[in-house]
Design brief:
globular; two-stranded antiparallel ribbon; alpha+beta; Helicase, Ruva Protein, domain 3; single chain; 2 strands; binds zinc ion
Length: 118
């Protein structure tokens, strides 16, 4: 559950191999993991949604219907951009993501520029 949610919040496609995740992105993933696990422990349930997006002040007030972004939400509209959430089977485990918020290629390093010939 956290895996799908954290990738969403970081804007990282869940099928990007770990070795292609930049150290900056890895840091973002780490900070998000700590934050969300802390909230989860405090509330005794998993809430990944930003309460401000739902017009609330605290994650504790978010309903079960609204507490997640992508997990098991295939076919439903993305909470942020309304693109349909999709899923894939990865080694027997399902992952869910928003194709627009988590594009597969955007995070790849850009191709090296060709030297300008003068
Ligand atoms: Zn989206």
């Amino acid at each position: 559950m956290y895996r799908a949610e954290i990738c969403f919040l970081a804007g990282i496609h869940p099928l990007v191999p770990a070795r292609e995740v930049s150290s900056e992105d890895a840091k973002v993933l780490w900070v998000l993991s700590v934050d969300l696990l802390t909230i989860g422990l405090r509330l005794n349930r998993i809430v990944t949604r930003d309460p401000q997006e739902v017009g609330l002040r605290s994650p504790s007030r978010i309903s079960d219907d609204e507490r997640l972004y992508v997990y098991k939400r295939d076919g439903e509209p993305c909470r942020r951009c309304h693109t349909t959430i999709v899923w894939a089977d990865v080694g027997g485990r399902r992952v869910w993501w928003c194709p627009r918020c988590q594009p597969q290629s955007a995070r790849r390093p850009s191709p090296r520029r060709q030297p300008v010939l003068t």
